[in-house]
Design goal:
CATH architecture: 2-Layer Sandwich
Subcellular location: Cytoplasm
Function: Catalyzes the transfer of endogenously produced octanoic acid from octanoyl-acyl-carrier-protein onto the lipoyl domains of lipoate-dependent enzymes. Lipoyl-ACP can also act as a substrate although octanoyl-ACP is likely to be the physiological substrate.
Structural class: alpha/beta
Number of strands: 11
Organism: Ehrlichia ruminantium (strain Gardel)
Order of helices and strands: EHEEEEEHEEEEEH
GO cellular component, one term: cytoplasm
CATH superfamily: Bira Bifunctional Protein, Domain 2
Strand content: 25-35%
EC number: 2.3.1.181
CATH class: Alpha Beta
Amino acid sequence: MEWKIESLPVPYDKAMCFMQQRVEGIANKTQDELVWLLEHFPLYTAGTSARSEELLTDSLFPVYSTGRGGKYTYHGPGQRIAYVMMDLKARDKCNVRLYVETLGEWIVKTLKHFSIRSYFNPNLIGVWVNHNGSEKKIAAFGIRIRKWITYHGVSINVFTDLSHYSGIIPCGIKEYGITSLKTLGVNILYEEFDVVLKKEFNKVFCNC
């Protein structure tokens, strides 16, 4: 598994092209699987289940339609994105459901390292925390699979400007809010977070 970490924001359309090409390379066995850590410039994306009324304004940031599962979400500075391109065929026990659950376990264990108690909710796909008596999402999931190879992935709010979510109903869920590591009192940079992400990934995906 190769790891690629970007130091500058990656334009969304370029990231999509890169992932599609990488999936083909993995399928053809000419390129290795990849975990790609990056951030985007501020934007909204609409998954395959997004409804027009969940986009409250299109004047804040660019809006991209994407083939991943899910509804509307936000990407931008302070949010660590992990795009995982993995060949499920190469893992006898790893079906789609187990893959998504293992992604959840990965993020939960990463956050635990920073003393954040969280949980993966399979019904409201994502990783959640209980903050001041209310449930809030700290990590969103959006997955696509082609030729049994995964792409897209997970976005974790590290020091995200949460006001940027105001233009959408995040993931189509009105009842619950959004939070970040910074809001929870954990002030870290990507470099520290990435080290833990890689360490925990290698642990949880050893059985997938």
